[in-house]
Amino acid sequence: AAMSHFALYESAPLSDLQAFLFDNLCVKQDDPGVMHTILPWHGGTVPCDGAETVRAVYSILMQATSLRDALDRAIRLGGDTDSVAAITLGIASARLENDLPANLINELEVGGKYGPEFLKQLGTKLMSNVW
């Protein structure tokens, strides 16, 4: 949530994300639990584990130059790539160039319950706090 807030509402570059997290999570930088969560991912495939997913997302956000690059990095990690990719692209879409292949959107459950129209409406509701 803090990474999403940073991407949406802060003007600082993504490279300042770590400082923002330390400042706003009200923790000390030498806290081993927090340091573990905010350290870059270096562990091979990502297990289905919340803290490890956050680390992988954080690492990708600190390195990616576009949405396609972020998606590529998430997939290359292996493991729980669907969670890592979904969270990363959700956050990165507020900041990075959208250079994703058109077929990823054009062929997204067109006419289905959770297709592009559903996602657009959901995004609008989330940003306007209308439920």
Ends distance: 19 Å
Unreliable residue runs: none
Shape: globular
The secondary-structure element order is HHHHHHHH
Overall radius of gyration: 16 Å
User: What share of residues is helical?
Assistant: 55-70%
Describe the structure in your own words.
With 131 residues, this protein is mostly helical. Helix content is 59%, strand content 0%. The radius of gyration is 16 Å and the shape is globular.
How would you summarize the topology of this molecule?
Layout: H1 2-9, H2 17-24, H3 32-38, H4 50-63, H5 67-77, H6 81-92, H7 103-106, H8 116-128
Helix pairs in contact: 4-5, 4-6, 5-6
Can you give keywords for this protein?
131 residues; globular; 8 helices; mainly alpha
Quick summary of this structure?
By secondary structure, the protein is an all-alpha fold. It has helices at 2-9, 17-24, 32-38, 50-63, 67-77, 81-92, 103-106, 116-128.
